[in-house]
Amino acid sequence: MKRNVLWLLFITLPLWFFLVSCGDGGSENDDNTGDTDEDSDISGDDAPKIDDGLPVADDHLPTDDTPPPTDDGPLPDDIDTPDDNDVVPDSDIDPTADSDGDGISNSVEAPGGLALDTDNDGTPDYLDTDSDGDTVPDALEGTGDADSDGKANYRDNDADNDMISDADEAGADPTAPLDSDADTIPDYLDTDSDGDGILDIYEGNGDVDQDGTKNYLDTDCDGDDISDTIEAGANPATPVDTDGDGIYDFKDGDSDNDGLSDLKEKELGTDPLKEDSDDDGGSDMA
């Protein structure tokens, strides 16, 4: 009996060692198929396999699909609908279209398929007919840059950079924006809306003489019956402040600070810009 057992071991042990050395036995050789990382990819380069859902039998390259899958829809892959299993980022925005009909293409209002929302109103610019929320339609504002600040007019709620909002300058009907001086440039793009030579940014949105007309639209802001153009001086780009009180003459009811209003001095025939109009050594007030 003992002899039979020893004989059986003598025969089976070499056979067992042979099978172990030839089989997988946990090795990374995958039965000489070249699949050294056991991912069913037999390309031999051990590159990670991208699984596209095809049966393993179809997977013979590091990437299963060459070229990658594409959509069969009407739009190019880079603008097609999401979840189409292609490798190009998806967007629902067709750059060749003008979805809001404002004359500005989607490729401009949604660059690279990015749905910008300039006025944060929940409607992306490419679907918003007033992208900056200034009441003036994008179709009128256009893609120009009146103040050269790097923002297109349709995205700039102060397109002429005069510190007065486009909404104010457009007037009661933004679809027909005001052009106060009839120079064919609408006020919201005009740096001198009333054409008096003084920039709107100096005149501002107030109403010094309380006549119901905003300073930037009023050619006689202080109501002294002297035009702002005259009171601004030789260079309206740098308006005069005769008495140095920090108020430009065209806004100052007493430009020379002699106690007489400019309007009164005009009635009296004295110089509203000289405290002593007749140079007699005394104030015009005396």
Ends: how far apart?
149 Å
**What's the number of helices?**
7
| Succession of helices and strands | HHHHHHH
Q: Could you list the spans in which at least 5 consecutive residues all have pLDDT below 50?
A: 25-34, 39-50, 54-66, 71-75, 77-81, 83-88
Overall 3D geometry?
Answer: elongated
Number of strands: 0
Strand percent estimate = under 5%
The percent of residues in helical segments reads 10-25%
CA gyration radius, whole angstroms: 41 Å
The largest sheet, given as strand count, sense and whether it forms a barrel, is:
none
Structural class: mainly alpha
The whole-number mean of residue pLDDT values reads 79
Question: What keyword list fits this structure?
Answer:
0% strand, 286 residues, mainly alpha, elongated, single chain
Structure, described:
The chain has 286 residues and is mainly alpha-helical. The chain has seven helices and no strands. The chain starts with a helix and ends in an 18-residue tail after the last helix.
Provide a concise account of the structure shown.
With 286 residues, the chain is mostly helical. It has seven helices and no strands.
Topology:
Layout: H1 2-22, H2 106-109, H3 138-141, H4 166-170, H5 200-203, H6 228-232, H7 262-268
